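Entry 14. Two folds queued back to back today. First construct below, sequence then structure tokens.
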Amino acid sequence: MCYVAITISPGSSNILKGGIVMFGFRKDKTIGKRGEDLPLPHEGLPDSLRPSGLCPRCGKQSSFENVGSLPVTYDSSYVVHPGGEHELTLIDRVSSLVCRHCSQGIVVIEEEWVGDSPAKQQKHGGTVTWRGIHWWPLPESNLSTDIPKNIADVFCEASMSLFANCPRASAVMSRRTLEAITVDKGETAGTLADRLLNLTKRGILLSTLSDWVKEVRLIGNVGAHFDPIQTVTVDDAKQLLSFVRELLKYLYDLPAELKRKRSPSTPYTDT
């Protein structure tokens, strides 16, 4: 799948669908169907601060309703209320958010922020917000059965590592996902670079995808070998994971979907 940068006029929007850019009129909506305020667009995962984004369950961009929170970690300080009661202060809590698209709940571990830093750092004052640090179910773990299980397992491990705040480990497992793909496509000899080049020559990978795969391979190598200068950031690992996910869609999901459309009786399941 190839992404193309296009400049859009203010009166229109672009939607990327199956590798095809489709155009339509933009509708700026701030109120939902039930009269609720819609949150600002957010490409990440939802939390109490930004109750919108990618749903880990259905994989769709959606808004979320916060149905409640419970304490997890208390600070050593406390608040004294006017009546004299003492209340321990929180630094972590768990919140349940319900996706308005699939109507299923997700769990978010959130930490308290004051201003632009976590409250536990006690830097300065500011607005108190709650921001997600862990999510359940794990994002990018709901893969279709069109992807071979051994490849899906490795990819899910890359996802788990990323959302456990281990970007190096995630980068390495994304590279291992590529290795598993080359084996599945019949390339078992030589370096990973050689295998990917052979897949391009055989027409399995487009040349544009092959160029992107080289970047994934290089970041994976950085993650595998200790170098205090060359680090893998969380953003690096996120971009890497997103690309490998798109590659899985291109090589497995889309061909299988096309085959099912040509043979409607073929069953389909999600894991």
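Second construct, same run, same settings:
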Amino acid sequence: MFNSAESGKFSWPIAFTLLGLIVALLIGFIFYRSETWPMRTTHQSADEAERIAGDIKNAFVSIAHLQPRITINDRVYMEQTTPVSELVVLSRRIEVEHEFLHTWVGSSKRVKLHGTFIATAGFDLQQGLSINVRPDEIIVQLPHAKILGLEQQQVDVLAFENGLWNRISGQDVQSELSILPQLAWKKAAETGLPAEAERTLQRQLDDRLHTPEPLHLIFKGAAANEAK
């Protein structure tokens, strides 16, 4: 009877020992997790940065058919592999007219032409393109957009009138034909085609990249708005 009663009693020393062991294990686990947290966070951040860099590469391959130079926290992650000198992101139809009128000794000649051109706008990548993925932002640096090219589509003769003794010469026609591209280039620049190209690139990247960090386009140098 005595032995049975003793065996049924709860052993507080053993309970406290087990409790102390559990607390010690818990403290050790918490300490381990806190010690390894920076390392785990660093690995996770690095993996995320590399994933973002890969997405950026794919976006530029889709937009410009090139793999750009990408750095992660100012350390080179990927070099540019495709030598592309220009990035065209926008084209627009430009129409211009010009009239030539000359009077000599009461005799007048008149030439009026209408020209249709396709102007392309984008970026001269020979001036540099760099992408840096940082923990709090993504920075894309490239030159300001500009008019990259002008292709003549059609020229219509609206007026071709000779005077009685003041005749239209071949030089007159060549001079008028050479003026039309200059007017088209100037019109494309003045209507804000380069600025629209910059907004288009920002929109194309935003549509393809969905990152928690903001994407900033930084344009180097002066804005191009020149006429040729």
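Quick look at the second one. The two ends are 114 Å apart (CA to CA). The chain has one domain: 49-220.
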